[in-house]
Each structure stands twice: as C-alpha cells, then as structure tokens.
Amino acid sequence: MLLSRARIVPACRTLLSHRCVSTLNTNPHIKVFPNAATNNAHLLTYLDTDPPSHRLAIGSTTALPPTPQSFSENREFLSILTDVLHAHAAQDPGLKAQAQAFAGPGGATLGSGGAFFPQQRKQRGTKGSAAGLGGGGGAGGGGGGGASAQGGPGVRDDLRNPPDYGRIAWPEDILGSIEVDGSGNIVGEFQPSGTYRIVTNEGILGLSDFLRTKLVERLKEEENKERL
Fold first, then answer.
1. What SS3 string covers 33-91?
2. How many domains, in total, are found in the chain?
3. Which of 23, 28, 49, 124 is deepest in the core (most CB within 10 A)?
4. Which domain holds residue 144?
5. CA–CA separation, 94 vs 59, rounded Å?
6. Based on the number of CB atoms within 10 Å of its own CB, is 216 exposed (0-12), middle (13-18) or buried (19 or more)?
7. Where are the alpha helices (DSSP H) in the chain?
8. More confident position, 119 or 217
9. Closest CA to 29 of 220, 156, 192, 208
C-alpha cells in the first residue's frame, strides 16, 4: 500500500502543476472549460489557455457532449475556420492524394474526408436533385452529378459523419467545395458551403490532422495578438 501511494503522489503533483484540462470524450482535441459568463455552461476550444478566450472558442454548451440544442456557435471562430480552409484546404495531403487516386474518365463526387465517389446520396424525403446537397458554395452545381473528365467542383466534408460508399454527405456536414481538374489536380479555391454546422446530432467539428494543425496555429496567432 505504501508503495502504491508513493507512485500516485508524483503523478498528482505533475497533473496539478500543468492544470488538468478536460477534453471532450467524443473529440479529445477539443478542450472543455467552465463558462464564467453563464451558469452550468462550458466553453469549447482548441486552445489550452486558462482562462480561455471567448473570442477564439468554438462555442458554448450547456450539456456534454454538446448537442444542436445545447450548443451556441461562436461566429468569430466560424469566420476563422473559413479563412483557414480557404488558405489551406488545397494543400491538405489527404485531399490531394484522394483527388489523384479517384480521378478518371468516369468522373466522381468528392465525398467524406475528401474521397471521390461515383454515385449520389439519397435525400431525406425530398425530390430535389442530389446536386443541391452541395450547399451554397459551388458544390451545389456539380457536387451531386460528379466531376467529369474535364473536372469540376469537389465537396470537402467534415470527418465526424462519413457517408456510406457512393454517397454524398448531408448539407450540415459539408464544409465547402474546391475545383478539381480531370487529372485529379486541385486547381480552384475553397468555397464555403453556407450549410455547414459545427455541431449536429452526429457530433462536433472533425477536421483532418493537417487542417486541425493549421487551425490551431491560426488560433494561437490570434491569441498572441490579444496579449499585445
């Protein structure tokens, strides 16, 4: 028993010295802090700083894990996320690799996680064309029909809810679109869908390692500006 206690104490001291930070069990990259501005609420953020910056937080929630009903998104964060995607989505190694791998004469739609798929996703009880699932950012015109051998817009999805093979993600999971040519090369700029939601019934924001790293780097830059 004495030996066990001796092992536990240093660990506790180490944890206390680093101010234990809680994370979402559904996404360990997202930290959870009490929201001092609202009783029984929590701030969700990618940054470790305590107290957290409200301006740079993903949003606030009154329940864990967050739900669409409990979560209030931070418009400032969403604007920063869009800027990061616009600047770096075309350099995402996973997106580039899969665009090359799935390019071909038959054409395809850029689906979950940046993968090309040859079919369309069934809609939820509507009669509109699948092209409309692309949202307002350029994917709507060609996302559902698929990129032809001459190229077309590909859809960049959130990773929290990958669609079945051959299907396109739901509008709330589509981050936006980006132009891909017939050879599988990314040639256009990222365009936000206008339909994306940070939290859905399927979970919270999920990005590739590359894009998450770029987002955190930008958030830290903004945090440093706040300290000046």
1. EECCCCCCCEEEECCCCCCCCCCCCCEEECCCCCCCCCEEECHHHHHHHHHHHHHHHHH
2. 1
3. 49
4. 84-199
5. 27
6. middle
7. 2-17, 75-88, 93-102, 139-142, 209-227
8. 217
9. 208
Domain assignment present for residue 176? The answer is yes
pLDDT digits (tens, 9 = 90+) for 147-164: 433 444 455 566 776 666
The residues near 76 (Cβ < 8 Å, ≥ 6 apart) are: 55, 56
Whether 211 is in a domain gets the answer: no
Strands lying side by side in the sheet with 27-34: 22-24, 27-34, 42-45, 59-61, 71-73
Q: What are the angstrom distances between the C-alpha of 143 and each of 112, 119, 176? A: 12, 10, 10
pTM (two decimals):
0.71
* Cross-strand partners of 27: 24
Residue 88 inside a domain? The answer is yes
Q: How far apart are CA 160 and CA 124, in angstroms?
A: 19
pLDDT(37) > 80: yes
Q: Are 115 and 95 in contact (CB under 8 A)?
A: no
Helix, strand, coil shares of the chain as percentages rounded to 5? 35, 20, 45
SS3 121: coil
Is residue 118 within 8 Å of residue 108, measured between CB atoms?
Answer: yes
60 inside domain:
no
The helix (run of H) or strand (run of E) holding residue 192 is strand 191-192
pLDDT tens digits for range 40-75: 999 999 999 999 999 999 999 999 999 999 999 999
